[in-house]
Amino acid sequence: MDIREIQRAFDTRAEQKGWQALHTPKNLAMALGVEVAELHRHLQWRSDEEICALMDSEQGDEVAAELADVQMYLIKLAATLGVDLEQAVHAKIAENSRR
Amino acid sequence: MDIREIQRAFDTRAEQKGWQALHTPKNLAMALGVEVAELHRHLQWRSDEEICALMDSEQGDEVAAELADVQMYLIKLAATLGVDLEQAVHAKIAENSRR
Amino acid sequence: MDIREIQRAFDTRAEQKGWQALHTPKNLAMALGVEVAELHRHLQWRSDEEICALMDSEQGDEVAAELADVQMYLIKLAATLGVDLEQAVHAKIAENSRR
Amino acid sequence: MDIREIQRAFDTRAEQKGWQALHTPKNLAMALGVEVAELHRHLQWRSDEEICALMDSEQGDEVAAELADVQMYLIKLAATLGVDLEQAVHAKIAENSRR
Fold first, then answer.
1. Is B82 in a helix, a strand, or coil?
2. What predicted TM-score, i.e. pTM, was given to this entire model?
3. I need a surface site. Which of B10, B90, C8, D41 has the fewest CB within 10 A?
4. How many domains does chain B have?
């Protein structure tokens, strides 16, 4: 996955919409949480079996779109905080393997 | 970012710890939300200026580690739901550019 | 605030809608999180000043309705977990005052 | 449940700790979400049966304390937003009964 390309797409859209000033660390962190909750709305009243069936239905695309939103806000938030997300993941994997 | 490699590292650890049976869609979705909240704990009482200062301090690494946790659970959740995360992001970017 | 009365109203509606079997601890906990996020959606891109202005507008009632939803799910979740919410609050206040 | 009394206890503690300036609508809303996630941490890897067993164990008090924290932040957030929480709940129950 090309993180920089995704970030550029996010920023281009923000520029076109005039949203850039809103993309502060705190707002983006809150938006990340809201996107996770949008995902939860699809899953909250369903059992794991029903969730699997949901993914095979037309609604599966909506769930995928929510996962995508979480990914995009995560990439943007990391960039805004000056964190190299890929490097952070590798550091965390290395730390986990030591425990 | 190599999504499959990260997923393999996640799965290897889960296997070693005996956590695999717990990694159902619903549990992973809930865990994703908890990881976002762990991130929020670092940011919640701080202004955007204080958050920037935090990132330049030693605690910046802890924030990066929380971002990494969110990324890892997101990758695992997407895989468990049968979603190609990278493709989902590209589909969402394409959809956004049409609006 | 009459907790039992609110809980009865919640349960009566659940009975009429046939939702009772869904109201397990885990589902209710997840729903509580989703309701908090619904509240966040009203606040996320706004400054504290803009939030105050929002509360004076017609949309203020929608925010109040989200707060009410959080309250109702909290009461129902506590009851489902066998927790006396009022007593738990008093115990927590007592604990806080000792710190 | 006496909402005003709980709010007074919350405010007294905030005053003693010097936290009042931090208790803005946005910070309190974020804190409410973090408290819900603290609750989720106790429940996330457990089945509903395991959650019931947890409530009968010593850890049940910790879960009750998290529910109490959610209640206290909810009361404080509502007050900060100028919302009469009890009235908002009754309005929502009335609205639900019309649907």
1. coil
2. 0.97
3. C8
4. 1
